[in-house]
Predict the 3D structure of the following.
Amino acid sequence: MTDKDTDPLLPPGSVKGKDYPILRSKERRQISLHRKTKAYLSMTAAMITVGSSFVVSKFIVARFPVFLASGLRYGLAAVIFLVILYAREDGFPKLTRQDVLRLFLLALTGVFGFSVCLLYGIKLTTAAASGIIASTGPMVIALLSFLFLKERLRRQQWLGITLAILGMAAIRMPSESPQAIPQGVSVWVGDLLIFCAVIGESMFTILGKVLSARLSPLAISTYVTVFGFLMFLPFAIYQSLSFHFRAPSVADWMYIVYYAVVVTVIGLTLWYSGVSVVPASTAGAFTGVIAISALLLSYVFLQEPLKWDYLAGGVFVLIGVYVTTCRLSDGADDLRTAKASAPPSSSVDRGE
């Protein structure tokens, strides 16, 4: 199959004129808009599930040790993922050594590293400082996308990401009493751990974008979950030796099930189905939805106060996401026009 036979708007492996008729300009725009809209909705839904995890986590950590809860979560999710992957793709996709290395790094930074740094970092710094540092996530993703994926960042993209950062900073900086910091430990240790968690989450998006060129979203989610489970396993076994498994109620165990099925299985699948279509820098703007969903769900289920600074920050976040995605949709046709008119030997930048 030659490059002339394929079309970037058709499903992978499709042949223009054979599987689908040659698309007119209007039809191409409609398919492109449909794919992007589906990707945006998938990433939004994924980030809502992540936001809900903050509410569920409050109930989980009250009953389970951190590493044991994480081991149970990823163990259950890994079993579900493996069954679904085997059924839908007629077996397990073969991995190269490079794939294994990238998946290992993906799980190490975005699953194990992120969870550990975030949970222990919050204990060593204030909640306000943690929120400010965590709000740099979209910017870190954008910079890493620029450095490693060679994605161009237009001015309007920078504007949208900046608005999302300002919105999350406003949401996460309410007037509250600072958390107690252990004596003898510098507050910078906690700040550094939180920033390491942000880098880990950003690498999770970047490496996932690279792997999406070879593996399906389902395969990436499955292998990352398995690797994450194996990393948590020895620590989970150690904590299980002193844990009374009859102590948690049925509701407590259902929180673990929700974390595994909804947040991990459904959330990861939705996220990678979206990030495989759009640039990683655009995906970074959608992390603002985490703050919005966490805010609303905390208000509903935890009766936490809903303040005006929260609402103002939420508006900034949503505007930032809209500005970023709207610019990409407007510029998509120009990119495809240039790509269609370019000779086969030339290359066109894909950083739309």
In short: Residues 25-60 form the longest helix (36 residues). Residues 43-333 form one domain. The chain has twelve helices and no strands. Residues 105 and 141 are 16 Å apart (CA to CA).
